[in-house]
Amino acid sequence: MSEIEQVPPATAETTTLFEKYEIGKLLGCGAFAKVYHARNIENGQSVAVKVINKKKVTATGLAGNVKREISIMSRLRHPNIVKLHEVLATKTKIYFVMEFAKGGELFAKIASKGRFSEDLSRKLFQQLISAVGYCHSLGVFHRDLKPENLLLDDKGNLKVSDFGLSAVKEQIRVDGMLHTLCGTPAYVAPEILAKRGYDGAKVDVWSCGIILFVLVAGYLPFNDPNLMVMYRKIYSGEFKCPRWFSPDLRRFLSRLLDTKPETRITVEEIMQDPWFRKGYKEVKFHEEGVGLGEKVNGEEESKTTDLNAFDIISFFSSGLDLSGLFTDVEGERFVLRESSEKVVEKVEAAAKAEGLVVRKKKEFGVEIETQNGGLVIGVEVYRLLAEVVVVEVKRFGGDELAFDEVWKNKLRPHLCDATTSQQDQTQSHATAVCAE
């Protein structure tokens, strides 16, 4: 990495972010985000702050990527994955406050050092596979593994970062495959180039194989100034190992860089390979929280009725809205001291009494339509606590007067114990939410 540049923080007006973090030097930047070193004023802890421009990600249609990255990073707890401490926001910026990896990018180390010893490469690769295997166990696929997205802490331990292109198992189509074309050309698997469906775990393993080769060789196995020529090399899977590669490593790489995903080595098989297991110490850590789609007491975690901290912020912040997000919602949100079932029951009864058409929507949702079809109102209920819910009401069609007449005057009064409106909860500057 080039010498760190001293620049003003993303907030421009001050070197302090929300009176909590002192913004320092620029660590790196991309098309939509900049990363700064910062210090927690209260405890002196060093952190990295990723500043995302809302307008740019909205304009390029990447708002979903930002939401997914927050949702995923908030649930990952592994010593070899960069930890997300909290998210802050203003009307124009989103701030990821993350663990600071003092050693910087692995890419910079390779660029300056040339190549690593086989033993050191093995140690870093073992940490990488431990993190990737953990992600896969939670149904998370990184899809952009490369040395630029791998950081080192002050002890030289590897940390996986940047989940902006990651996918979750809910994105898998009926054919059992992912289909979004993404990744960095030199690290992308041949099945992605073939533009057919692919297994997220298999493409991550391929990228890990490329990374391992780069660590020990100091250069890419498939490379060419002409992108199409490089793609042909990747698709054919032809590469040459330098003379200093051990026989076991050559054999291992041939399994990692197998162009046929169905026969490519799996994470489980990697962990049993003789080359990999040499000096391997299984990572011990305490898993916090629930993984994506994991089961709690035999039941799958609710995706529609329970809100985590990152959902809650969307209801109570004028700065960061992660549900409707980067667009305005016609309607309202408010909190009730009531069960989800009771709220839906009351809304349905009131709507039917007014002669409105009622349709069930999801588990705790209902769609209400006027007889002439001119106005449709969607009501969804999200559980915060056992007897505390957020009610989200959206208007589809019709004008504001019709919405006020039907919803506010006829239906909403039946939910008379509303305790807190969205407006009352909204803060004037920004909202912080802990991911821990």
From TrEMBL:
Catalytic reactions on record? L-threonyl-[protein] + ATP = O-phospho-L-threonyl-[protein] + ADP + H(+); L-seryl-[protein] + ATP = O-phospho-L-seryl-[protein] + ADP + H(+)
Ranges for domain Protein kinase come to 21-276
Q: Which GO terms describe its molecular function?
A: ATP binding; protein serine kinase activity; protein serine/threonine kinase activity
Q: Does the UniProt entry include the keyword Nucleotide-binding?
A: yes
Amino acids binding ATP:
50
**A Pfam family reported for this protein in Swiss-Prot or TrEMBL:** NAF
Query: Which top EC class is given?
Result: transferase
Under the heading Gene3D superfamilies, the entry gives: Kinase associated domain 1, KA1 (3.30.310.80), Transferase(Phosphotransferase) domain 1 (1.10.510.10)
> What are the names of the required cofactors?
Mn(2+)
Q: Where is the NAF domain?
A: 302-327
Look up the record and give one Gene Ontology term from the biological process aspect. Answer: signal transduction
The superkingdom listed in its UniProt entry is Eukaryota
Keywords associated with the record? ATP-binding, Kinase, Manganese, Nucleotide-binding, Serine/threonine-protein kinase, Transferase
Give the EC number: 2.7.11.1
PANTHER family assigned to the protein according to its UniProt record, in alphabetical order = CALCIUM/CALMODULIN-DEPENDENT PROTEIN KINASE KINASE-RELATED, CBL-INTERACTING SERINE_THREONINE-PROTEIN KINASE 11
Family to which the UniProt record says this protein belongs: Belongs to the protein kinase superfamily. CAMK Ser/Thr protein kinase family. SNF1 subfamily.
Return the protein name.
non-specific serine/threonine protein kinase
Q: Which organism is it from?
A: Trifolium subterraneum (Subterranean clover)
What high-level taxonomic lineage is stated for the organism?
Eukaryota, Viridiplantae, Streptophyta, Embryophyta, Tracheophyta
